C-alpha cells in the first residue's frame, strides 16, 4: 500500500466500485478485443443490476467500451457518444451463478468481426477481476500486461511458451493454467512484468498447438 | 512499507528529526521508487484537481435519482447573506463539503479521499483554510501527506471501506485525516496531529453506512459536512493542548472492532438505518430499473 492508494484516484463519481470499476471493465474488454466495437450485449448481475442505474454503471460500462477512462467527464454522455460512433448496445439482467455481486457478462463483436465473451467483477476501490473469458475460467486483474493463450491440452506447450517469453526478456509475474477436460481446450493466463512486443505475440501465434493468443497491453490505445 | 501505527510515525519523526509529512513522503519515495519531486507532482495533481472540482461545481445539476444536488449553492447563498451561525469559515466549509459530495453524485470528476463517498471532507477544510490564510501551495501539499499518512495507518489497522466497517471507516477516516492535516497547518506538533485524528475518529465511532437505495447520495453528501466540521473542532482541541484519553492507535483498533460488530444491513447494503425507513423504501422502488 502506498500514499496514493489512500489519496486518489481522480475519478468520475459516484462510486469507485459501481462507476470507476465499471469503466475499467469496459475499457479492459475493449483492449482485449483490440478493435472498435460494433455491438455489445451487456448482462448485469447482482448489485450492478439492482443499483447500477443510480450509480451510472450502465453509462460507465459503455464509456469504457468506447475507450473512455475512469477520470473522464464524458462518461455521463456515453450513450450519445455510442450513437455517434455507431456502436450498438443492449442491457439485460442475468443471474450469474456464484458471481461477485458487482458482475457483468459482456458479449462483444468488433468491426472486423472478432468476438469476445467475458465475465468481469468490480471488487472495490476501482479494482476489477476478469473471471471468465470465452467461456473458460480466468483470474485477470488487468494490472499487468497479460497474455491469454488458448492451446490444445498436450504436453510441452506451457514450457514452449515460457521459453519464448524468456528469450524475449519478458519476465512472468504470475501464470495460471485452466482447462475444460483432459486433452481438451486449455488456457494459460500469464501476467508479465514487461510489455510483450507484436513480434513475440506473432511468434507465439505460429507455435504449434497454440490456437489463439489474446494480449492485454497496459499501454493506452484509443484507436485500433 | 506502510506504517502499522501512528506511534511508529511519530517516533520515526523524532529519531530522524524530520517533520511528519517528510516521513510519509520518504515512505512513498521508497515504496514506489520515485524522487521527492515526482511524488510531490502527483500530490499536487490531486490537490489541484480537488480545487478545480470545487470551482467547477454546477449549481443546476441533480443526481440521476434526483435525491441530491443544488444544496451547495443554497449554503453559499446563506453565507453571503450572513445567515450562518458558525461564522464564514464554518459556513464555507459546509458549502464546499456539500458541493463536492453533490458533484460526486452527479458524475463529475472528484478525488477519492480516501473514498468517493467521503470525497468532500478533506478538500472542504483544506481549500477553505488555504483561501482564508493565504497558505503557499507547498505547505498545503505537506498537509496532504499528513492526511495520507493517517489514512495509511487506518487502512492498515482497520479499514477505509463502508462495506467493511460502516461509515465510520469512510467519513470517520476522512475526518481523522483532515483533522491531522488541519492541526499541522495550524501549528500543531506531531502529537497534536495524531491526537486531532484520534479525537475526530472517536467522535464518529459507530457511524453506520445506510445508503438509501444503495446509492452514494443519502446520507453521504451531508455526512461529508459533519466529517469536515468535526475535523475543525478536533484540530482546534488538539492544538489547544487537549489530548485523546484513549491513545490514537487504540482508537483505530476500536473502530475496527466496532466495524466488525456492525450487522451487514448497516454496511453499504442499502438495507438498514435510513434505507429501511418508509421514505427510504419508497425512494428505492422508484430508482430500481
Ligand atoms: S453512508 Fe456509506 S457510502 Fe455513504 S459516505 Fe458513508 S460509508 Fe460511504
Could you give a quick summary of the protein structure above?
The complex is a heterodimer of chains A (224) and B (289). With 224 residues, chain A is of the alpha+beta class.
What does this molecule look like?
The complex is a heterodimer of chains A (224) and B (289). With 224 residues, chain A is an alpha+beta fold. Chain A folds into 2 domains: 3-140, 60s Ribosomal Protein L30, Chain: A, CATH 3.30.1330; 146-216, ACT domain (Alpha-Beta Plaits, 2-Layer Sandwich), CATH 3.30.70. Chain A has helices at 3-6, 16-33, 46-50, 52-55, 57-65, 78-84, 157-167, 198-205, and strands at 10-12, 37-45, 88-93, 102-110, 115-124, 127-133, 136-140, 146-152, 172-179, 185-192, 210-216. A 6-stranded mixed beta sheet of chain A has the order 3-2-4-5-6-7. Chain A has a 4-stranded antiparallel beta sheet with strand order 9-10-8-11, with helices on both faces. In chain A, a hairpin with a 4-residue loop joins strand 4 and strand 5. The radius of gyration of chain A is 18 Å and the shape is globular. The mean pLDDT of chain A is 92. With 289 residues, chain B is mainly α. The model of chain B has no long low-confidence stretch (mean pLDDT 96). Chains A and B meet through helix 1, strand 1, helix 2, helix 3 and helix 4 of A and helix 2, helix 3, helix 5, strand 1 and helix 7 of B. Strand 1 (10-12) of chain A pairs antiparallel with strand 1 of chain B, so a sheet runs across the interface. Bound molecules: iron/sulfur cluster. Iron/sulfur cluster (SF4) is lined by residues 117-118, 162, 167, 170-171, 209, 211, 216, 219-220, 223, 268 of chain B.
